[in-house]
């Protein structure tokens, strides 16, 4: 045998030398094929020079030559095995723009890892991708991919991780996905997937993390999901899932996160949920769950967050919840819970946020709660709690948000309340608290909002409020406060809302109010203030609402016309005896003007007709004389008028508000006439005059107008004839018929609707893209420079293509929301137009553009320094606070994000786009929560969704 080997050794050596040469040829061949496949795909992409793969070699005619190609193993984003074959493709956030259809996946026999997330890839998933039999990891999330998830995805039998989230996939989840038996992580969130969750998901027994949130999934949750005992995290929130929570979920002993909020789930919370001892976060809010809160939840000692609000849960709160010693966020609001607050809550030493608002809880507030060492937010409002406030409130000096409004609480304010330096937001309104207001409240360095309305406080307003440097809202209406407004209040320079109405305040309105330059709302109605309105009020140029009614004021300053942002002005029931100041005509944004029950004299200024935004006008119970100006015929925005009990005469304006008004709006004026029931006909409208004038007009028509009209008709005919002949040589006949008929009603507030409609069409070139400044989910925004010199933003709703008015629900939502609210940080709606063919909304134009656009521009983002950014955040927070807490009913925007935050030239933030907004019913036990997309949400809203 040895002799044979030695004899044939040369031949054996030559064979061994040949093997690596043949092997290297195969490797080079595979490498060339993979390189060419990658380069062909790269060549099909857009803007490749701006992407991370710009360093790849260019695809040329010579790349098929093995001598001219480099191994892709050294290229950016690629990794190879020892044999030189590509096994890993990682181009996350690489600036790729194009599709996957030009990538020949069959060229990559060893590819095991693909990450193309955070790019701009579009199109569908190519079926060729499902041929990668060795693929373990696939991440295509955060792209623009669309279409269905192909059932052939099941061919990737070795797949461990599948991420298709944050795309535009539609259709249902294919049942074949249940064949991916090695899958440990499935992320399909933020798509347009619908239909039920397939029961075959129950076969994925190795699954650890499941992300299905923010889709349109419907139907019942399959009980088979209880088989997934390795599950650690489940996110199924913000869908349309219905039916009960399967009791089989009690088998998921390793579960740490279970989020199923914002669905349509019903029935009781299963007792078996109490078996999930590892659970850290449980959120079921915004469903239709009913029955009692299971006492077994008290055994979830690792729980840090429990959100059950916005359901129909009833019965008492179980004492066992006091065993949740790890809990820091407990939210049970907006249910039908009864009974008292459990004393065991005093054991929750880690509790930071406690929300029990909008229930039917009764009894007293336990001392044990207010002494919790870490409590920051305590909201107990809108219940039936009674008794007095605990004496040790804010003992930890960490309590920031304390709301107990709309209960049956009474008695004095505890002394500890005065010393709480951590307060930021306090609401005590609509109770029966008593005590001296000048002694019970102290100096609060962080306080931003306090509402003490509708209680029984007495005493005088303390100058301490001026020492609260962050105070933006001070409401002390409907109490028994006496004395005058201290001049020091002018030092509270951050004040935006001051309401001292319905008290017994007297004296002069202090001139020091001029220093409150941020003031948006000032309400001093129903007090005993006297003397003139100080001219310094005219310096508060940010004022949007001014109510000084029901006092003893004697003169209106002329510079009140400087309040250019004023929307509501109520000076009724005072002692004014002057003429109506013509300077009021400068208040172009005014929507409500009430000067009733004074002794105003003279004629109604014709200049008031320039108030194009005016909707409510009340001049009743004065000594006004003369006729109503003819220019009032053009006040098309007017909705309600009252001119009763004056000395007016002459005809009623030919205006919808006047013509639709009841006789009560005109009575007490002996000289008024018009075609209104209860008023005498004007002389020009009497039967005799009607007949004579009709005959006169007929004679005039026959003798003068008819010949003239005939002459001009002939000229017009000849002109049109020659014009059409010339046009026929230049235009296609179809082009001549390209006229748009618009016969629907125009509804533009505060102006002549038809004129404004035509001006907007002309100013935007018929909504030409040249004038486009932004696009949103249901509309495109255009910049319009009107002939008047003003600039507005016009949002034209996208057409639906089915004959329906475009996005009518969102259109009406935006109108309702923006006509309900007035705030310096909320964009103003000037008007709207609704046609069958198109609808649009007209807003104030904000030259700074959207925050999203600013942050997306490197140059502008650098100019946005920290002080400007903080100012933007404050503006958004103040607007949200106003909508959530100061509007009645509260308004939830439901789609706050950088694209919906507009900036003016001073970088002041304005919230826009109220198409998904919701006006909440305070009496409802189930409020609608977020809609649209998840953008920035104010912290309090994120916790309470209110």
From TrEMBL:
GO biological process, one term: plant organ development
Signal peptide: 1-24
Taxonomy, superkingdom: Eukaryota
SUPFAM superfamilies noted in UniProt: L domain-like, Protein kinase-like (PK-like)
Segments crossing the lipid bilayer: 699-724
Membrane topology: Single-pass type I membrane protein
Assigned keywords, A-Z: ATP-binding, Cell membrane, Cell wall, Glycoprotein, Kinase, Leucine-rich repeat, Membrane, Nucleotide-binding, Phosphoprotein, Receptor, Repeat, Secreted, Serine/threonine-protein kinase, Signal, Transferase, Transmembrane, Transmembrane helix
GO cellular component: plasma membrane
Sequence ranges assigned to domain Protein kinase in this UniProt record: 767-946
Listed Pfam families: LRR_1, LRR_14, LRR_8, LRRNT_2, Pkinase
Catalytic activity: L-seryl-[protein] + ATP = O-phospho-L-seryl-[protein] + ADP + H(+); L-threonyl-[protein] + ATP = O-phospho-L-threonyl-[protein] + ADP + H(+)
EC number: 2.7.11.1
Location in the cell: Cell membrane; Secreted, Cell wall
Family annotation (InterPro entries): Kinase-like_dom_sf, Leu-rich_rpt, Leu-rich_rpt_typical-subtyp, LRR_dom_sf, LRR_N_plant-typ, LRR_R13L4/SHOC2-like, Plant_RL_S/T_kinase, Prot_kinase_dom
Chain positions recorded as ATP binding sites: 796
PANTHER family for this protein: LEUCINE RICH REPEAT FAMILY PROTEIN, EXPRESSED, LRR RECEPTOR-LIKE KINASE FAMILY PROTEIN
Family named by the database record: Belongs to the polygalacturonase-inhibiting protein family.
Identification of the protein by name: non-specific serine/threonine protein kinase
């Amino acid at each position: 045998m040895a002799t044979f080997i030695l004899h044939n050794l040369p031949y054996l050596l030559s064979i061994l030398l040949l093997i690596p040469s043949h092997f290297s040829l195969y490797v080079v061949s595979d490498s060339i094929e993979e390189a060419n496949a990658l380069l062909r795909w790269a060549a099909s992409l857009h803007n490749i020079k701006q992407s991370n793969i710009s360093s790849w070699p260019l695809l040329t005619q010579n790349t098929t030559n093995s001598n001219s190609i480099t191994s892709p193993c050294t290229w950016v984003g690629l990794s190879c095995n020892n044999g030189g074959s590509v096994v890993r493709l990682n181009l996350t956030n690489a600036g790729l723009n194009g599709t996957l259809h030009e990538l020949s996946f069959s060229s990559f026999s060893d590819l095991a890892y693909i990450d193309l997330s955070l790019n701009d890839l579009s199109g569908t998933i190519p079926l060729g991708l499902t041929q990668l039999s060795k693929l373990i990891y696939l991440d295509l999330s955060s792209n623009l991919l669309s279409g269905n998830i192909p059932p052939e995805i099941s061919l990737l039998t070795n797949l461990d991780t599948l991420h298709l989230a944050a795309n535009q996939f539609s259709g249902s989840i294919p049942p074949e996905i249940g064949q991916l038996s090695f899958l440990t992580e499935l992320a399909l969130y933020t798509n347009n997937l619908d239909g039920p969750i397939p029961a075959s998901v129950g076969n994925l027994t190795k699954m650890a993390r499941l992300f299905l949130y923010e889709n349109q999934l419907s139907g019942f949750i399959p009980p088979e999901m209880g088989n997934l005992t390795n599950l650690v995290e489940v996110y199924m929130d913000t869908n349309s899932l219905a039916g009960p929570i399967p009791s089989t979920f009690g088998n998921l002993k390793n579960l740490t996160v279970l989020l199923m909020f914002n669905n349509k789930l019903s029935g009781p919370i299963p007792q078996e949920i109490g078996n999930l001892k590892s659970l850290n976060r449980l959120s079921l809010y915004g469903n239709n769950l009913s029955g009692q809160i299971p006492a077994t939840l008290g055994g979830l000692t690792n729980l840090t967050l429990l959100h059950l609000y916005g359901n129909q849960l009833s019965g008492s709160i179980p004492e066992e919840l006091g065993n949740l010693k790890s809990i820091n966020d407990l939210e049970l609001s907006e249910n039908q819970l009864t009974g008292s607050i459990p004393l065991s809550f005093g054991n929750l030493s880690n509790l930071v946020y406690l929300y029990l608002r909008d229930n039917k809880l009764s009894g007293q507030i336990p001392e044990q709660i207010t002494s919790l060492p870490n409590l920051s937010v305590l909201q107990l409002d809108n219940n039936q709690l009674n008794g007095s406030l605990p004496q040790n409130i804010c003992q930890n000096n960490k309590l920031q948000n304390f709301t107990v409004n709309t209960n049956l609480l009474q008695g004095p304010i505890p002394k500890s309340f005065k010393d709480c330096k951590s307060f930021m937001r306090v609401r005590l309104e609509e109770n029966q608290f008593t005590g001296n207001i000048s002694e019970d409240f102290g100096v609060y360095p962080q306080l931003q909002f306090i509402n003490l309305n509708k209680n029984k406080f007495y005493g005088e307003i303390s100058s301490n409020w001026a020492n609260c440097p962050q105070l933006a809202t001070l409401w002390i209406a409907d109490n028994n406060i006496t004395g005058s407004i201290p001049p020091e209040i002018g030092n509270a320079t951050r004040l935006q809302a001051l309401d001292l109405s319905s008290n017994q305040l007297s004296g002069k309105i202090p001139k020091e109010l001029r220093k409150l330059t941020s003031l948006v709302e000032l309400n001093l109605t129903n007090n005993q203030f006297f003397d003139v309105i100080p001219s310094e009020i005219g310096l508060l140029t940010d004022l949007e609402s001014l109510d000084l009614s029901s006092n003893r004021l004697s003169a209106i300053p002329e510079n009140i016309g400087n309040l250019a942002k004023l929307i509501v002005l109520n000076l009724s029931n005072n002692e004014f005896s002057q003429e109506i100041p013509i300077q009021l005509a400068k208040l172009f944004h005014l929507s409500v003007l009430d000067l009733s029950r004074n002794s105003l004299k003279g004629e109604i200024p014709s200049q008031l007709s320039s108030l194009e935004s005016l909707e409510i006008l009340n001049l009743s119970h004065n000594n006004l004389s003369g006729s109503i100006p003819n220019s009032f015929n053009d006040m098309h925005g007017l909705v309600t008028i009252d001119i009763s009990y004056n000395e007016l005469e002459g005809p009623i304006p030919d205006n919808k508000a006047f013509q639709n008004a009841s006789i009560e709006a005109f009575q007490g004026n002996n000289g008024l006439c018009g075609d209104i029931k209860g008023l005498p006909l004007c002389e020009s409208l009497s039967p005799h005059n009607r007949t004579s004038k009709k005959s006169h007009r007929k004679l005039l028509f026959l003798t003068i107008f008819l010949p003239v009209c005939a002459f001009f008709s002939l000229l017009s005919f000849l002109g049109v004839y020659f014009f059409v002949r010339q046009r026929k040589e230049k235009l296609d006949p179809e082009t001549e018929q390209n006229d748009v008929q618009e016969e629907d009603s125009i509804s533009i507030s505060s102006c002549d609707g038809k004129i404004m409609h035509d001006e907007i069409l002309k100013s935007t070139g018929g909504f030409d893209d040249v004038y486009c400044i932004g696009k949103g989910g249901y509309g495109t925004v255009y910049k319009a420079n009107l002939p008047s010199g003003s600039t507005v933003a016009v949002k034209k709703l996208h057409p639906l293509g089915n004959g329906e008015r475009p996005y009518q629900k969102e259109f009406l939502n935006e109108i309702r929301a923006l006509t309900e609210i007035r705030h310096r940080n909320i964009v103003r709606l000037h008007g709207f137009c609704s046609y069958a063919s198109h609808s649009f909304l007209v807003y104030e134009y904000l030259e700074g553009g959207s925050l999203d656009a600013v942050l997306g521009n490197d140059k502008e983002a650098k100019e946005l320094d920290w002080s400007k950014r903080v100012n933007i955040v404050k503006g958004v927070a103040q607007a949200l606070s106003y909508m959530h807490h100061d509007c009645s009913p509260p308004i939830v925007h439901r789609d706050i994000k950088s694209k919906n935050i507009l900036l003016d030239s001073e970088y002041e933030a304005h919230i826009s786009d109220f198409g998904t907004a919701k006006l909440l019913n305070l009496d409802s036990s189930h409020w609608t929560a977020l809609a649209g997309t998840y953008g920035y949400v104010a912290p309090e809203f994120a916790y309470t969704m209110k």
